[in-house]
């Protein structure tokens, strides 16, 4: 399905983005000496909230169908009907993650700060492709098996599952999924899984018409490890190299 996140009220997203963009608190302070940036950096100026919303719209429209078709081509019996959501709770960090809802449907969640931090559509597309790739590659399942967290996550989600759920219940389910994602999706992938997601994310972003190399530059602006999004992530140099190698084959 396309553009379901619009149900969260585009006006609310625009307002939240305006608030996020008004402050500088999430802007990273890059360490110039250690930045493995492969090419000229993007302009550092942030986008307007209107532009950020338009960019996100455009990226969802183009990346979601490609992610779903790649998912169906590469898997058997997996739910490939991605639902793209925006976490509009105030104060959430720059983050995006993949998780599953109560019915096992794959969610890709962007925080408002993440949308605000991206400087162009290529960056949003690369991150969206990366998160979709975690689902296609079965990383969440592997992670839960490895960490023994599956029962906790799905127990919580299942308790909220009702047939014909009201919007309120559905939203509550998403909130639970957000928490599950914060617990599972954002922290415990291995570095190998991250590089695999970068590789497949490169394919998805490119096939959706975006530039994955330009998109991967997003990571050059993020604070280095310690941040929950990056805590388990490989060094940027390894990620850029993976993206470069895969992009060269497309
Ligand atoms: Zn990842």
From TrEMBL:
Residue spans crossing the bilayer: none
Pfam family, any one: Peptidase_M48
InterPro entries: Mito/Outer_Membr_Metalloprot, Peptidase_M48
Residues in Peptidase M48 domain copies: 84-245
MF terms in GO: metal ion binding; metalloendopeptidase activity
Cofactor binding description: Binds 1 zinc ion per subunit.
Keywords: Hydrolase, Metal-binding, Metalloprotease, Protease, Signal, Zinc
Single Gene Ontology BP annotation: protein quality control for misfolded or incompletely synthesized proteins
Cofactor(s) of this protein: Zn(2+)
GO cellular component terms, semicolon-separated: membrane
Signal peptide range: 1-22
Cited PANTHER family: METALLOENDOPEPTIDASE OMA1, METALLOENDOPEPTIDASE OMA1, MITOCHONDRIAL
Family: Belongs to the peptidase M48 family.
The protein, known as: Peptidase M48
Organism: Dinoroseobacter shibae (strain DSM 16493 / NCIMB 14021 / DFL 12)
Lineage: Bacteria, Pseudomonadati, Pseudomonadota, Alphaproteobacteria, Rhodobacterales
């Amino acid at each position: 399905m396309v553009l379901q996140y619009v149900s969260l009220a585009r006006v609310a997203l625009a307002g939240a983005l305006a608030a996020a963009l008004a402050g500088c608190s999430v802007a990273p302070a890059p360490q110039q000496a250690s930045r493995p940036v492969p090419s000229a950096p993007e302009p550092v100026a942030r986008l307007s909230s209107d532009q950020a919303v338009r960019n996100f719209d455009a990226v969802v429209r183009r990346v979601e169908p490609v992610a779903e078709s790649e998912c169906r081509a590469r898997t058997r019996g997996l739910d490939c009907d991605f639902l793209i959501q925006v976490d509009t709770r105030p104060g959430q960090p720059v983050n995006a993650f993949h998780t599953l809802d109560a019915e096992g449907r794959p969610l890709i969640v962007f925080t408002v700060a993440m949308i605000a931090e991206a400087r162009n559509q290529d960056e949003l597309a690369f991150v969206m492709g990366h998160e979709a790739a975690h689902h296609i590659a079965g990383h969440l399942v592997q992670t839960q098996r490895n960490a023994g967290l599956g029962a906790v996550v799905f127990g919580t989600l299942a308790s909220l599952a009702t047939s014909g759920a009201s919007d309120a219940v559905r939203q509550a389910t998403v909130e639970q999924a957000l928490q599950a994602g914060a617990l599972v999706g954002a922290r415990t992938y291995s570095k190998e899984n991250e590089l695999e997601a970068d590789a497949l994310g490169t394919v998805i972003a490119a096939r959706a018409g975006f530039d994955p190399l330009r998109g991967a530059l997003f990571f050059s602006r993020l604070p280095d490890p310690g941040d929950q999004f990056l805590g388990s992530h490989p060094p940027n140099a390894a990620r850029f190299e993976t993206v470069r190698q895969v992009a060269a084959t497309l």
